[in-house]
Structures are given as C-alpha cells and as structure tokens.
Amino acid sequence: MKKILVLFFFVSLFSFSQDKKISQDSIDYYLELASYSAEDKFQIENAIKYSNKAVQFAKKTNNQTKLYDSYYFLGNLYLENSKYDEAIIYFIRCSNFFQINKLVTSKLAKTYYSLGVCYLEKNKAKLSESYFNKSFEIYNNLDISDALQLVNLQKGLTLKANKKYEEALTIFKKIVLQNSEYENSKIEAYYQMSEIYTIQANYSSAYIAVKKALEIAEKGNNSLTKNKILKKLISLSEKNNDYKAANEYLKKILHLKDNYNFNEDSYVLNKKNYDNQLDLVEKLEREKREQIRSIRFSKLISILSIALILILSLLSFSLYKNNKIRNNANRLLEEKNKELTEQKEKAEQASKARAEFLSTVSHELRTPLNAINGITYLLLQEKPKVNQLNYLKSLEFSGNYLLNFINDILEINRLESNTIQVEKIDFNLIELINNIRQSFNEFIQKNNVNFHMDIELNGNEQLIGDPTKLSQILINLINNAIKFTKNGDVWLKVSTVSQEKNLVTLAFEIKDTGIGIPEDKIANIFDSFTQGSVEINRTFGGTGLGLSIVKKIIELLGSDIKLESAQGKGSTFTFDLKFEISTNKTENNSEITEDNFENLKDKKVLLIEDNQINQMITKKMLENKGMICKIIDNGEDAISEMARNDYDLVLMDVHLPGINGTEATEQIRTFNNHTPIIALTAISLNENREMLMSYGMNNVITKPFEPEHFYKVIASYFSS
Q1: Residue 613: how many CA atoms within 13 Å on its side-chain side?
Q2: Nearest C-alpha neighbor of 90 from the set 74, 107, 77
Q3: Is the pLDDT score of 111 beyond 50?
Q4: Calpha distance 2→256 (Å, rounded)
Q5: pTM (2 decimals)?
Q6: Helix, coil or strand: residue 426
Q7: Phi first, then psi: what are they for 312, rounded to 5°?
Q8: Amino acid 293: pLDDT
Q9: Taking residues 401-416, what's their average pLDDT?
Q10: H-helix or E-strand spanning residue 651
C-alpha cells in the first residue's frame, strides 16, 4: 500500500512539473509570435492579441516573472505606436510587480525609464523627471554606467522642456565629457546644447556646439542626423552673417540628397518624353509647310483662311475674357467663403473657450469651497459660543450662495455643450410638487407670501418623464416668484391640456404679484447673467442664470416658455410639457436618517485624497460618526494598500497626481470586486456620473458635499 502511495505521489509531481513546463513554453511561444508580429507595422493588432494570450497563461500558472515580461512587452508595443496612456498602464503594472515583491533590478530601472519617456511625450515634465530620477538612482546603485548616459540625456531633455536651461546644460556637458562607445548620445547632447544657446541668443557658443556634433556625426553614416545638424549650422551661420559658410553647408545638404534621392529611371522617363516632344514639333512644321504651299495655289482660299482665323481669334478672345471674368468671380467667392469659414471657426472657438473657461473656473472653485463649507459645518457641530454663531451662520450662507452660483454656471455650460440627456423614469407628480413646496416653507414665511396650489391632473399623477429637470424648472421659477414677492401671493397651477392614449399634455403656470419686469427688459430676461436692473440685483441678489437655465431645459424637453409681466403688477410664466402615463405606482422608500448612522461606527474607510485641507475635513467628518479612517495621497499607493489590506469602504478622489482615481479604481477592480468605491469629485463639464461608474466606482459624491447627503450615501452601503 505504501509503495502504491509513493508511486502515485511521484506520478502527480511529474505531471504537475510537465504542465508547468508546457504553460511556460506556451507563454514563450506567444511572446515570440507577438515579437514577430510587432516587426511588421500592419500586424500590430496580432502582436497585442498574442501578448494578451501570454498574459492569460502567466496568470493561469501564477508565473509572476513571465507576467512582468508580458506586461513590459505590451507597454513597449504601445509606446512604439505612440499610444502613451495604454503604455503607462502596463508599465505601472510592471512597477507594482517589483514593489509588491520588493525587488530592485535593472528591469525596474527600465520600467521607470519607459514611464519617464511616456510622460515626456505627454508633455508632463515633472512626472517625467521624477521617473527618470528613479531610474538613474537604480542604475547608479547597480553601477551600470552605459545606461546612466542615456537616462541623463532624457533628464536633460526634460529639464529643457521645463525651461530649466542652465540645469539642462550642466547635464549635457557631463555627457559630452564622458568616455563612451555611444556616440549618438554625444551628438544629441551637443545638438541640444546648441538649441539652448540659440534660445539664449548666444550664437557663437551655439555654433561651436553644433560644429562638434557634425564632427562626430561625419564618422558615421546617419544621413538624417547630418541633415538636421547641417540645417542648424546654416541657420547659425546666417545669424552670424557668415553667408559663405551657410552656402557651403547648403552644398553638403544637397550632396546628401543627391546621394540618397537620385533616381535613374526617372531620368530615362524624362528623356523619352523630351524625344517625343521633338517628334511632335517636326511633324507640325511639316504640316505648316504643306499648308503654305497649298495657300499659294488659291488666293480665295487664302482670304477665306485668314477670315476664318480672324473669326476664331475673336471667338478665342471672347472666350478668354469670359473665362477671366468667371475666374475672378470664382476667386472672389472663394475668398468670401474662406472669410466666412474663418469667422465661423473663430466664433466656435470663442464659444468653446468661454464654455471651457467657465467650466474650469467653477470646477477649480469647488475644492476651496469644499474646505470653507466643510470647516464651517464642523465648527457648527462643536457648539460654538453665542457670539461666534452669527459669524458661522453668515459664513455658511455665503458658502451655500457661492455653491449655488457655481452650480448654475456649470449647468449652463452642460446645457450649451449638448451633453445632457433626457431621462424617462416613473415618478409621482403630486409627490414631487409637495416636496418642492415643503422645501420653500421657511422662505415663504420669511417673505410673508400666500402660496396657492391648483392641481388638476384627472387621475394622471403617475407619469413617465424626467423628474430632475422638471424639478429644476419649478424650483427656479417658484424661487424667483417668492423672492420678488413680499407680502403678496404666489400661485402654482397645473392643468391637463389634452390626453391621447398613453400621452398627456400638462400646462404649468407660475404667477406672482411681485415687482414685475419692465417692458424693455422682457425680451432679454432669459439671457444668461441678465436681471431687470442693477438696483434689483443689489436689492434681491441672484446670479441672473436661473431663467436662462429654465429656458434651455424646457427647449431640451421639446417645448417653450412664455412670459407676461408688467412693472409693479407681477409676472406669469407658462409652459406645456408632454408625459407618458405610467401604470406603475412608486413606493415611498424611507430615507436613512440621523438615527440610522449608528451602523457607521467602527467601519474602516480608506480615503485617497491629495489635498491636505480636504483630507483633514473628510477625516474629521468620518471620525465624528465613529468610523476609522486611513489617508493615502496618490493612486499608486492606494492600489498597493488595497492589495495588502481589507477595508469596508473606499472614498476615491478622481483627480490625483500620477495615476488618477479612475485608473486606480480600474486596477483595484482587477483583484477586488466587493469593496464599495465612492468617487469624490468637483465634477467638471467633461465628467459625468455614467463615465465615472464605468471604471468600477459604485457611487459619486460631488464636492463640495452636503454633510447629510455625504453620510446617507455612505450609510446606504452598510444598511440592512
């Protein structure tokens, strides 16, 4: 029995070793196929396919070394084809392999060097310099001097791109003084020195440097390098008024072109065409002589021939004139069309620049505003003194006002960029209107307004449409009506206009007895940043964006808004909207309240945030509810941390140095699909919830976040 067990053990061991060897051979086989395909620029897709096959086999057998080789090959493949973002992802995976296994080898130095090249091509000089420095440090510790010279050259190029010319010159001078077999590095270093001296208007030094580059280049056979250097010498010679030298270098360039571009077949073809032309001319001359001889036989024929020639000449002249007039007209039309096209492009660029500017400003303001609102909330939670309470309430009001203004700007940009989509979901119109009415209770009491509601839906309360955009319209119009009406009345009326099968058209009317709008301002009242007058703005406040947003949303929903107003008598806004009638009934889901936040205690939360103020605020808010918070300030460390430890929840800032939040989330999801990841972002014009969720995030919280909403979103992942 023992012999049978021992025999079974050795057979299993042999089978396992054979399977492992076959898998490793498969990895090498696919990498060789990928390398062979990569040599042909038309076989790049096959190279990627075979590389991914190698990755699959490496993962299947847990062969980490071959997995690194496969990732590094893919990174180089994308780098050679100028797909730098994809290359960065695979090089980062390579570096993670070494960091997790705590290995420091020349392969890690190559990986950092490749990352530096990628970021240099993407014009991210600081990141590029960082990775080159890491690569240089490893090569220096490993005492690999030949690689140091290449890394130094790239560091010099990075410093030059960063306009740190003196530091770049120092590095290039070190390269040219070193003894090395790699003459191309010296040539490039001399050439870059010449470029920097030219920028500094030191033309004599620039000329000396590029002359040394030519001396080294002439020892080799790289014509493209010589051509580049000769062009530089011509430029510097002209700047030094040495036109004789410039002419000599020009001759050398022409000589190079003659040696590499001379085409014997082309010359033969031209000679043949030239001979054919001679035959044609001789033939015409013979015909002309025969014609002259025939004219002598008859005077009448001569006269008729001359008359015919005159007529043909007149016709030709007439055709020429007409053709010239037509060409002039066509040229004028082309110039006008070109001017119109340029004006159109300028207008589009100006509109795009305006939208991007407003979006960038509103986006960048959210980060400091998050600090203001967050610190204000934390101070109010700590029971401040009575004499401090008014100051904090004023600060809270100002922060909320500024946040509303920024949100309005961002909403205008989103509407103008045509990126908004209309939703079609079930909602209860009565419930929606009651919630809006409830939110204005305090404002209604403050302005002593009598608020009237008249709703006639004929039993069609349950609808299918976009409740969010309808809420935006009603909130803006009702807010304006209450704001400009003190000690008066405001009406909200909803009535059924028509009903056909499963479609219903509803008429909305918001009426007030407020200050009204002057007749000369009505035509422009829906424009952005427009109010009745400067006095109105100073008295009532506001941004002048609300009505513009309302108009754009209603147009997006396929309708238009009408206004009737008289100064001192109030205003009436009306519009119609179509909805589908729903047969479903929405359930009132109970929201998580303050009492439910008990489930947040002792939960481990990983916060990835690079802004120190936001780190402090968010951590304090989490700890106030009993949660345990750890902070990491970059995407690379976040990936490593999630690979090592378990957390109940991750709060991921989208904009991070190096790997951003979306890339980090995408990589985390390759080994962890269960931990909820919530995005924290000062969302911009080019971002949206669907885009962020596509990377593997579970939810999105927009900065600056409202504390209650912040807690409710987090608590929803721990509720039963």
Answers
A1: 12
A2: 74
A3: yes
A4: 82
A5: 0.41
A6: strand
A7: -65, -35
A8: 66
A9: 65
A10: strand 649-653
